[in-house]
């Protein structure tokens, strides 16, 4: 069987930011879609703990991916049963009727984040991000270059 690719896109908010979550400390922050895809930024660090996370997918995104995979598997099963039913029609020795269809789980649409995050521009490299207001006061790491900033533009 061919490998199956399920695709979905993570929506950006009105300003073009995508919600990310640090795998180390669970901090939420947002980076522009542009920066997320920017090859010049070799690694993204978490503004709160300054570490590089292996994944920045939020729980919502992971949940959606799992639900989509489940639903896809259900489709396969449903189709298989339908196929069996159709084939068994021409065979008097074997009668097969597909039962109730397996119901899809609701695929939760992704929200681009309800957290109150404030937009800041980092003086170190002039990339901008959205971070928790508290981080703005205590200082935080630039997600794009890892420098700790205490003042923002
Ligand atoms: Zn972190
Ligand atoms: Zn920077």
Describe the structure.
Helix content is 27%, strand content 14%. Strands 1-2-4-3 form a four-stranded antiparallel sheet. The longest helix is centred in the middle third of the chain and has 30 residues, at 59-88. The protein contains three helices and six strands, in the order ββααββαββ. The protein has a domain at 17-59 and 111-149. It is α+β, with helices and mostly antiparallel strands and 153 residues long. The chain starts with 16 loop residues before the first strand and ends with a strand. The mean pLDDT is 86. The structure holds zinc ion (2 copies). Residues 122, 124-125, 127, 142, 144-145, 147 line the site of one zinc ion. This is TFIIB-type zinc ribbon-containing protein.
Number of strands: 6
Structural class: alpha+beta
List the ligand species. Answer: zinc ion
SS element count, helices: 3
Range of helix content: 25-40%
Please describe the biggest sheet, giving its number of strands, its sense, and whether it closes into a barrel: 4 strands, antiparallel
List segments where confidence is low: pLDDT < 50 over at least 5 consecutive residues: none
What would the average pLDDT be, to the nearest integer? Answer: 86
Name the helix and strand elements from N-terminus to C-terminus, one letter apiece. EEHHEEHEE
With strands numbered from the N-terminus, the spatial order across the biggest sheet is 1-2-4-3
Q: How much strand content do the residues show?
A: 5-15%
Q: Give the CA-based shape.
A: rod-shaped
Tell me the distance between the termini.
53 Å
Q: Supply Rg.
A: 23 Å
